[in-house]
Amino acid sequence: MAKKSNLANRPVAASGSAGTLGLDGWLYLGLLLSIVTSFLTLRVNPQTFWPAAVPGLLLPWLFGANLLALIYWGLKQRWLLMGVATFTLLLGMDYWPRLGGWATEEGLRVTTLNCHGFLQDGQQADPIVIAAYFAGFESDIICLQEFPYTRREASVYTKAIRQETGLRHSYRDKDGGLTIFSRYPLSNTKAHFFANGANGYLSADAETPEGIIRVFNVHLQTNAITDMAKEVSTHGDLQKTETWMTIRGMLGRYGRSARRRVPQAKEILRLAIESPHPALLCGDFNEVPGSYIYRQINGRYRDAFVDAGRGIGSTYTGPLPGLRIDYIFYNARWQATHCRTKSVPFSDHRAVTATIPMKTQ
After folding, report:
1. CA torsion sign, 233 to 239 to 240 to 245?
2. Nearest to 70 by CA among 96, 32, 37, 102
3. What is the dihedral of CA 119, 124, 129, 135, to 10 degrees?
4. Backbone torsions φ then ψ of 339, nearest 5 degrees
5. pLDDT tens digits for 314-330?
6. Euclidean distance between CA atoms 341 and 41, whole angstroms
7. Most distant CA pair in the chain: distance in Å?
8. pTM value > 0.90
9. Higher pLDDT, 13 or 339
10. 122: alpha, beta or left, given left = phi > 0 and alpha = psi -120 to 50?
11. Left if phi > 0, otherwise alpha if psi is -120 to 50, otherwise beta: which for 205?
């Protein structure tokens, strides 16, 4: 009788043993591949291939998952994989300042906001409350759009903000809805409005300790589709002709506004390029990152949120939420170390704030 093989009596290797990768190992391999892909896409210019920017948005979550994996492999006593997880975290140290709010680098602190006239629940908010809100940013420069237009109201808010924030220098032109607040003296101030007191730009030279920079506070042509979008979102019925007529009107109005923004943006971009000082462009551009105008500006100036932000960075919270239309663009010689958006109780926009170490020479 043939001798019975001993193979049947041998124990099957446990999943995850040294000889097998195991399901958890394969999942971790996928995580490592995602992290490596994200590292590579950070070096790809989104202007060349915009989808390449998407994996980079996942880095904070990927690093968090890798940290959990490090703990998991330690508990499982999988020392090799624990070493790989540790090495991956160390490999990403150069990228951490770009991802987190823990960056501590010093630099110029800038905030921009379409303040919507400081309207909250249909009423103008208390100037002291508004001033305290801005003081919390500890900014060196604040650019505001849709600032209260009447001189008396503007004066009250300006005085409160200057006192509470310590930004003693400010510039506002007549009855226009744009204002710049600065910790540093402002000179060579100029203003230009296109068709009204809302849409236009201010420019001023801020005399910082690192050198003079030229600040542009920008509010390009408004789309003027908020009321129509609200009507569609609240009362629209896609089975009714009236709803589709409203949508068609929205698209037509947006197209006309976009055409008007092109020469406006080109004028501002030309002035920034011709400036003898490094330029900082802040404000409500009413354009999304995939637009023609954004590409024109981003070809010359860096986007603080792209360099140092997290997530999708939407800045508009009105009837068409999820849009990123407010920006801080800055000189290519600089590198933002921190950029965030923050919800505002008195506006349908989110504030954008950034920290930018400067090298003006």
Report:
1. positive
2. 32
3. 50
4. -155, 130
5. 898 876 667 889 999 99
6. 23
7. 110
8. no
9. 339
10. left
11. beta
- Tell me how far apart the alpha carbons of residues 199 and 283 are, in angstroms, rounded to a whole number: 11
Q: Tally DSSP H helices, then E strands, for the chain.
A: 11, 14
CA distances from 301 to 109, 237, 314 (A): 17, 43, 20
Contact 350, 317 (CB under 8 A): yes
Q: What is the mean pLDDT of the chain?
A: 80
149 vs 295: CA distance, rounded Å: 31
* Helix, strand, or coil (residue 208): strand
Give the single-character DSSP code of 154: H
- Residue 29 banded pLDDT, cuts 50, 70, 90: confident
Give percent helix, percent strand, percent coil of the chain, each to the nearest 5: 40, 20, 35
**What would the 3-class secondary structure string for 27-77 be?**
HHHHHHHHHHHHHHHCCCCCCCCHHHHHHHCCHHHHHHHHHHHHHHHHHHC
Mean pLDDT over 339-343 rounds to 94
291-to-44, 112, 256, 275 alpha-carbon distances in Å: 19, 20, 14, 25
- Two tokens at 90? 């160390």
Nearest to 261 by CA among 218, 220, 225: 220
CB 346 within 8 A of CB 119: yes
Length of the chain: 361
pLDDT in tens, 182-225: 999 999 999 999 988 789 999 999 999 999 999 999 999 987 54
